[in-house]
Amino acid sequence: MTIDENKETTGDDATLTTAAADEELGKTDHEPVAPLPTFRKRVQVLSDLTGMNLAELSGHRASRADRLTVQELTVLLNMDPEAVVNQHRRRRQKSSSDIITKFGQANALKGDDLRLAEEVERFGTITERTEKGRTEAASIGTIEDHEGLEPPDDFVYNHVGLTSVQAAALLKEYGPNQLPEKVEPKWLIFFRLLFCAPMPIMIWIAVIIEAAILNWLDMGILLLIQFTNASISFYETNKAGDAVAALKSSLKPSATCKRDGKWEVVDATQLVPGDLVLLGSGSAIPADCRINDSEIDVDQAALTGESLPVTMYKGDSCKMGSTVVRGEVEGTVEFTGANTFFGKTASLLEESHELSHLQKILMTIMMVLVALSVTLSLIYFAYLLVKGESLKEALSYTVVVLVASIPLAIEIVTTTTLAIGSKELVAEGAIVSRLAAIEDLAGMSILCSDKTGTLTMNKMVLQDDTPTYSDGEDQSSVLVYAAIAAKWKEPPRDALDRLTLGSVDFSKLDFYKQLDYLPFDPQIKRTEGTVEDTRTGEVFKTTKGAPHIILNLLPKDDIAVRDKVEADVARFGALGIRSLAVARTDSASGQWKMMGLLTFLDPPREDTKKTIADAKEYQVDVKMITGDHLLIARNTARQLDMGDRIFTAERLPLLDEETKQKPEGLSETYGDLCLVADGFAQVYPEHKYLIVECLREMNYTVGMTGDGVNDAPALKRADVGIAVAGSTDAARAAADIILTQEGLGTIIFGIFIARAIFSRINNFVTYRIAATLQLLIFFFISIFAFHPADYDEEWPEFFHMPVIMLMLITLLNDGTLITIAYDNAEPSHAPSRWNLTCLFTASSTLGMVACISSLLLLWFLLDSWNPDGFFQSLGMQGVEYGQVITAIYLKVSISGKSVDYYSSCITPYERIYISLCSFDSSDFLTLFSARTGQKFFWQIRPSKALLIGACFALFLSSILAIFWPSLMIEGIPVEGLRNDMGLFGFVWLYSFLFFLLQDGAKVLVYKWMYKVNFNDISTTGVVVLPESAKKLIADLDANLKEEGISVHH
């Protein structure tokens, strides 16, 4: 019943014109849709605005009990009218190059049973349809709507082949039969990574400066860091970017076609639409072809990952990239090159050269620190020159502080941490092909999951409910009738044979002798067996097939059985359960009698429901994206508690047919729909691609699972592309993570691991920023604020440390710091996304407390000879300037700074000290605070590796401070603390007390940020519905309620 047909039940006011609606609302600017009082009035008004019959757009149905119609019309009502019109203009007919037939999709049904269920839901059983004037032809047309599966009306089968002249003309029109591909030279990729990004440019500037002041060793270290970073990025880029190459590797270069009246082997790239090709056992299918006649078995493992071949019949579309494993037929080429199933996939796999999310974050952090470092360094470089330092000395000291304060190797340390963490994922059945994907997995807010094989078992399971329509029959006997309508002594040919022969009691088949067998044929759409009961000699026929096909075999006056069967099919269809009808003939009259319905479905995996519940607990929104029928998708979602807002692909946009570009304003128009939906059904590849792109435009981190070639574009576009177990080579090449175990459980456990890895990286970055800030601010203030000569005339005019000590403070020990990768980390219960404002706030708190403590200690030490000073009041003796230097070194070593690079202006003797101190890793007290995030340092126990590394580094720093020889370095006196162990103990106690203060300040700052939700720290990464999406949900519920449809959440 359409909207127009329903006017009598809704009243004359349902036909309000746009002008009348505007007058009612007091508006004239074509914005009457949302405020109109009733659902049906609003539908009519939007129809007037757009000039379209919206009920017709939604599938010629508007029954009050039709949830689908109400949901889809509500979505249209919440869209801008212009967007509704544009969407309608972009609609195109689904073609065979958009979809692929899988083994489990059952040729004998093709979804006809579910479409029959929809027909009964809308118009009633055959008796009710007849009373309403619904013709049988109209019903059959709806039930057998195989858009994309059946050849289009204008398709012409070629049985004679093309002439060379015809082929040449078509080749000029359609182009070669090959995949479009842009090949970028590998050297250009490496060059771009080495020279064309902010971080490499900054390192090159540092290299030039080091060369200018003749620090060749330091220049060499910088070059090593530069090439290491570029090599890691180059490896990651190539490893994850060869999806098109994987597609091409499965294609064969030759084909057998008929040209000028004779068969010949030609280069497959020369095939054109309309060519007649020979498809024989063992041969590759060279283009998307329609089978002219007979049947073949086709191995589509390269396209779908399925190991079982699919039987294809006359009119079926077999795809480029698959292989014939049984039979020989002639076929007509339908699509070539970019228009094939493969070609459409390849066109969506172009490289975007987009930086990963982690790279963008690290780059932002680097730029902030670089800007701060350069600004402060230039200021005290000028100050040193003004104070009389030589240009080389001032430049040398400034470059050391500058380079030491910038975490040049942060990418190396981060990558190493990710690599070590990836081993944990491998142990759980998840192979990581792009390391940065671990960080994306940790921050994943939305997971778009395929249904078949991921949420479900990918296996049709017979259900206990088997309605029978003849006396004395039960499930066991119906199974026997179904089995003898097949070649039960041969391997099953399709999913339905596999289901029946896998469930029947074979001992009962021994009583039957098959006299004749009619295999499935697209014309009769059923299988039929003629058998003899060896016990009685009775000969009869049995058949199985789609319910509406089998019902048409029954006597025309058997209306009661037809009504009952259709009602049962509708009842099962509403639950997403498939129905296979089974009938037999009466041996006396020869008339067909309905035996029963075999019901089956692909059930969810045992662990899926709990897995999805766990995902929700970790605040990951799981959406089902499937090509299966809406009824199946809705039932699966209901069983898994995923929600019931499942939409069809009808309301989703499409790529531009010619340019392949996404629609303008994708997220503005369709963002609310994608957020609100619990899933989408009856989609095909570009829908998946655009759903992912829409959600990414809204700044969500999106994961996507898939297994076939058709999933590759969405896998590549997603932040986290996940190829499930048994995926094709193309899917694995496009994916970031490859699962080796079936089901969704591995993904959810991988999220848990990834968030722990993210915590380690976040803690490391927090500590690095804090340490950098401490070093920069401490030396900047100390140069200006503290003049040692003011305390003792023999002391230097301004404070600075010898380069060797600065290098010992700033030296990174990779072997020690890498223990962070093994640290115990607490994963977040929400998606782990970078909140840089909050990160810098926490880091600044840690860095500033440490900096203030160092500045305060410096003042205490310089003022230690003052009888009224702090030191003297504690009964401690005055400190020599050489010991001041060593004490500050110890202090900053304990709670100061560790970086990636040591440098500059030191003698070979001093370099010996640096090499001897290669295990020195400072700032471990700050690290112990940073590693626990918003908790106190004792609330998360450190790993043994980190604890041992920290203790060793602090012990070595202490030994160096005690036994440092008394000497002059760069004109600055340095003296160990062995003669004043009281000072040594004081520095340690002082550092520890300020560490406690530092940790407490950090916790307080975090509590404040969470209390006031500073910069959305409490909701970072979590899916937060905008008001427009909330309105859409409320509108959906209200309209369903208005139409008398129950709402379930």
UniProtKB/TrEMBL annotation:
Q: Which SUPFAM superfamilies match?
A: Calcium ATPase, transduction domain A (SSF81653), Calcium ATPase, transmembrane domain M (SSF81665), HAD-like (SSF56784), Metal cation-transporting ATPase, ATP-binding domain N (SSF81660)
Top EC category: translocase
What's a BP term from Gene Ontology annotated to this protein? proton export across plasma membrane
Q: Quote the SMART domains the UniProt record gives.
A: Cation_ATPase_N
Keywords from UniProt, A to Z, are:
ATP-binding, Hydrogen ion transport, Ion transport, Magnesium, Membrane, Metal-binding, Nucleotide-binding, Phosphoprotein, Translocase, Transmembrane, Transmembrane helix, Transport
EC number(s) given by UniProt: 7.1.2.1
One GO CC term, this protein: plasma membrane
Write down the membrane topology: Multi-pass membrane protein
Biased composition regions of type Basic and acidic residues, renumbered to the chain: 1-10
What's the superkingdom here? Answer: Eukaryota
Query: Chief localization class?
Result: membrane
Report which reactions are catalysed by this protein. Answer: ATP + H2O + H(+)(in) = ADP + phosphate + 2 H(+)(out)
**Membrane spanning segments where?**
187-217, 361-383, 395-413, 765-786, 798-822, 834-862, 945-969, 981-997
Metal-binding among the record's keywords?
yes
The protein's location, in the record's own words, is: Cell membrane; Membrane
Q: Which GO terms describe its molecular function?
A: ATP binding; metal ion binding; P-type proton-exporting transporter activity
All copies of the Cation-transporting P-type ATPase N-terminal domain together span: 145-215
Q: Where is this region: Disordered?
A: 1-34
Spell out the family assignment given in the record's similarity comment. Answer: Belongs to the cation transport ATPase (P-type) (TC 3.A.3) family. Type IIIA subfamily.
Q: Which PANTHER family match?
A: CALCIUM-TRANSPORTING ATPASE
**Name this protein carries in UniProt:** Plasma membrane ATPase
